[in-house]
Structure formats: structure tokens, C-alpha cells
Specification:
Blueprint (H helix, E strand, L loop, with lengths): L8 E3 L2 E3 L2 E3 L9 H9 L3 E5 L22 H27 L4 E7 L5 H11 L6 E5 L6 H8 L2 E6 L2 H10 L11 E4 L6 E3 L13 H14 L8 E4 L20 E5 L13 H7 L7 E4 L7 E5 L2 H11 L1 E3 L10 E2 L10 E2 L1 H12 L4 E4 L4 E5 L1 H12 L32 H9 L17 H4 L11 H9 L3
Parallel strand pairs: 3-11, 4-5, 5-6, 6-7, 7-8, 8-10, 10-11
Antiparallel strand pairs: 1-2, 9-13, 12-13, 14-18, 15-16, 17-18
Helix pairs in contact: 1-2, 2-3, 5-6
């Protein structure tokens, strides 16, 4: 029996539960978790973002970049990306054993997204049921899905974004749009589609936003049987009871991104799993440090607190004496062409006295003060860039045309590929980015996880289907 008569849906030619595993990039939603989710009758999602490959003994192959140029390393990254995701899909498909369905997830803003997606779909024909894709405006998604005869499920955060995608591209391949994923920008983990018109500090109720999405879909002639997948903040189905069988919303499915982190099959290291059990409300921060330029949500650990503190040690400057910039900055910089406000000069001298002796320029005509060690790490990470994003604020790389964003590399950000690879493969959980949804504090409160219980994916799906 499922909660409130929750019914299976027809997807990819078979009945599956309307429960989707959220795709978590860089080796977190791998074959083990997504294959098990599908085997339990749901829609498992293999992340095709920087996925792991294995050597003949089954050990993970470290992604080492040998090329001397960024373009060369970017080509290596694409090769790693395709071979890793293909391996993950094949393994997940085997684990699923003909049950549920396997999707793959890509970020449109990842470097080489189109080449990786096409390379993976080419080599996994018949294994992948659908492609979820967000982080950007993936207009080409429908056309690629059509070429490889798979479903596509755009990830959007507003009715307005869906309408733009539909008008420009998706209306031409409407028959393959299997669902629309509404990823709530205030609740979901990872990168969030918060627009400039929305306030990061004022969360909006998802119901009116999803109703507006359904109204837009209806106005464009999309059938009510095409589900909207609610993603972000979903924990207990009983809390979403009024969404199920609701004529205002049409067909609804639910995505779980954070809960599958704490399962037997979840590949994240044990210290990360243990830390999830300790989180309190407010421990996940919606922040703007990501080099993608998007807002994103992650655990507010020392890594994130350091980035917050770095941005606080920041003052504006002019190249000439102007306005309130009447004194020359005499600490942290070489040369005299840094004019600042007198109060800011005092702050800068204070930071230097604390050991933050290096001032680094940002693209916004400010300087941030860091320690010599931090400066070395920032410079090395920028030099080692392998082009993991289509546009990177941290290294000023872009993956096409002249390979430069034309902006100064931003020292207030970080190398996202390095930190996500590190935490996924056993690195220090305090000194790396730890993505999580805003409901992660519920691991500590939910009796299902008491006495350090860690469920299998099968047990988790069965529990979810009870309403809990």
C-alpha cells in the first residue's frame, strides 16, 4: 500500500513510482544509488557530471590532467566525463534488473555539456530512459533527446523559465518531454535557479509557483498527464498530501535529493554521512560563492565560512583619486594606483596586522585580503583550471570562442571541480564544499534514522511510500 493511494505512472514503457532520485554531480549519484533506486521501482538518476571510471580491478581512476594548456585539459575532462558516465549508466542498468528506470542528469553550464551528453547517449542506447538537465537554459536539450530517442525532463525554477524554453525549443519536440522538474530555489541543494527578481532571504511558498507552472503548461497545450516533479525540501510525502490528486496541479511526482545521501548504497564517505546526522535548521546556506555565478546551497562548514569571511575582508578602490577614495592603499598591493576611502585604509591595515597580507583584485573593482598561503592556493587552482564549467568566474575560462570570459578571475570564489572531487573521494569534510538541501537537518529529527540506522535504498523507498 502506498501513501494516499499514490499511483505508479507510465514512464519509458513501464510502470514506475512517481519518485525520482535527484541527480547529484561529481560521483555522488552513482550507479550504486541510482541502480538501487530503480530496482526499488522508482526513477534512479546517474549524474553525468564528472562521473567516476574504474580500472580492471574495480578501483576508481583518479582524474589526473596531463595536458599543459587549459584547452588540452578540457579535452581530457570531456573524455573522462563520457567514459565515467557510460560506465555508471551500464552498472546502474544492471543493478536495476529491468525495474524502474534510469535517467541521467547533466548541468547545462558544465564545460563541454553538449559533447558529454551526446557522447554518453551514443554509447548507452537502450539503457537511458530520460535526461534531466538544469543550471542554465538548455534550449538544445529537446533536439538532442530527439536524436537519441530518449525522454527529456527540463529542470526549471519558475513558470517564466519554462515558457521561454517551450516557446523557443521544446514545443517542437513535445512528445519526448516526459515531465518538468520544478526545483525550488530556496529549498533544493546544489545550484539553484534564483533569478535577480527573487530575494534569496525571502523564500516563497512552492504551491503557487507550481500552480503557475501548470497554468503555463496548460496555456501551451501540455497535457495534465505530463507530471510536474516537485524537487527541493521533499521529506515526508504526508506533508505534500494536498498536492497528490489535486486538479489544480495535475500529475505530480516527487524528487528526493538529500535523503538518498544517507543510505547503504550512497557512495559518499562515512564522515560525510555521519555529519548529516548532526545538522540543525539553518546549517545549510544559500550562497553566491559558486564560480558558476548561480546561487547554491551547501552545509555552512569551515570551508564556506572561510569564503564568507574572505568576502567580508573586501574594500572598493579606484585607479585615480576620486570621490571618497582620497588616500592611497599602502598595504597588500604593489604600486600606488589604489585609491581607497580613509576608513577602508584603516580596515585594510587591521587585516594585514592579522596576517591577511595579500590583496587580490576582483572583477568588481574591489580587493580582498588573504593570507600568503591562501593566495598560493588560489593562484595554483586558477592555473590548474581544466575547464569544468562553460563559464567560470574563478578562472575566467569559457569553453568556446576565445576561451576567456573577458573578466578578471575572481579570488572570492573557488575551484568547484577540485573541491567536489575531493569531498566525494574521502577529503576533509570541513575543508570542502558539501552540497545539501535545506531539509538536511531532518536526519537528526527523523526517528527512521535513530540509533545510527542507515537504510538501504529499498528500505528508504518503502518508507517514503508509507508517507514517512
Amino acid at each position: 500500500m502506498s501513501f494516499k493511494g499514490l499511483q505508479p505512472i507510465l514512464y519509458g514503457g513501464r510502470e514506475v513510482w512517481p519518485l525520482v532520485e535527484g541527480g547529484k554531480g561529481v560521483a555522488v549519484s552513482n550507479h550504486a544509488s541510482s541502480g538501487a533506486w530503480a530496482a526499488a521501482g522508482g526513477i534512479g538518476t546517474v549524474s553525468a557530471v564528472n562521473a567516476d571510471s574504474y580500472d580492471p580491478t574495480g578501483k576508481i581512476i583518479p582524474q589526473v590532467f596531463e595536458a599543459l594548456t587549459r584547452q588540452g585539459r578540457h579535452a581530457e575532462l570531456i573524455r573522462y566525463g563520457i567514459s565515467g558516465a557510460v560506465e555508471q549508466v551500464r552498472r546502474a542498468y544492471d543493478i536495476a534488473g529491468g525495474k524502474g528506470a534510469i535517467n541521467i542528469n547533466v548541468l547545462w553550464e558544465m564545460g563541454g555539456a553538449q559533447a558529454i551528453l551526446e557522447g554518453v547517449l551514443e554509447r548507452t542506447r537502450g539503457l537511458v530512459t530520460g535526461v534531466t538537465c538544469g543550471a542554465g537554459m538548455p534550449y538544445k536539450l529537446a533536439e538532442i533527446a530527439q536524436r537519441f530517442e530518449v525522454n527529456y525532463l527540463p529542470i526549471i525554477s519558475s513558470a517564466r523559465a519554462f515558457r521561454a524554453l517551450w516557446k523557443r525549443a521544446y514545443s517542437k519536440v513535445s512528445e519526448l518531454m516526459a515531465a518538468v522538474v520544478y526545483e525550488d530555489p530556496w529549498l533544493a541543494g546544489g545550484h539553484n535557479g534564483l533569478s535577480n527578481a527573487e530575494d534569496p532571504l525571502s523564500p516563497e511558498d512552492p504551491y503557487p509557483r507550481v500552480k503557475a507552472l501548470r497554468d503555463t503548461m496548460r496555456a501551451e497545450g501540455v497535457s495534465d498527464s505530463v507530471p510536474i516533479v516537485m524537487a527541493g525540501g521533499v521529506w515526508y510525502l504526508r506533508e505534500w498530501e494536498n498536492w497528490i490528486d489535486n486538479p489544480e496541479l495535475g500529475a505530480i511526482a516527487f524528487q528526493f535529493g538529500t535523503r538518498p545521501l544517507l543510505t547503504e548504497e550512497s557512495p559518499i564517505p562515512q564522515p560525510w554521512k555521519d555529519h548529516l546526522r548532526t545538522l540543525e535548521p539553518g546549517d545549510v546556506l544559500l550562497h553566491r560563492f559558486s564560480p558558476t555565478g548561480f546561487y547554491s546551497s551547501a552545509v555552512r562548514n569551515p570551508f564556506l565560512r572561510n569564503l564568507e569571511a574572505r568576502s567580508h575582508r573586501q574594500i572598493p578602490y579606484s585607479r585615480v583619486e576620486a570621490g571618497e577614495h582620497t588616500v592611497q592603499l599602502d598595504v597588500g598591493v604593489k604600486g600606488k594606483n589604489f585609491w581607497v576611502a580613509p576608513a577602508d585604509l584603516g580596515r585594510a591595515r587591521g587585516w594585514v596586522a592579522e596576517g591577511y597580507t595579500q590583496a587580490l583584485r576582483t572583477p568588481d573593482d574591489t580587493v580582498v585580503f588573504v593570507t600568503p598561503n591562501e593566495r598560493e592556493v588560489i593562484r595554483k587552482d586558477q592555473a590548474d583550471c581544466m575547464g569544468c564549467l562553460s563559464h567560470c568566474g574563478f578562472s575566467a575560462w569559457k569553453d568556446h570562442d576565445d576561451f576567456s570570459t573577458g573578466r578578471l578571475a575572481d579570488p572570492r570564489s573557488f575551484c568547484i571541480q577540485k573541491t567536489l572531487q575531493d569531498i566525494a573521494h574521502g577529503g576533509d569534510i570541513d575543508q570542502n564544499l558539501m552540497f545539501a538541501g535545506h531539509a538536511a537537518y531532518r536526519f537528526k529529527q527523523d526517528p527512521f534514522y535513530s540509533n545510527n540506522f542507515t537504510p538501504t535504498v529499498q528500505q528508504l523507498v518503502e518508507r517514503i511510500l508509507t508517507g514517512d
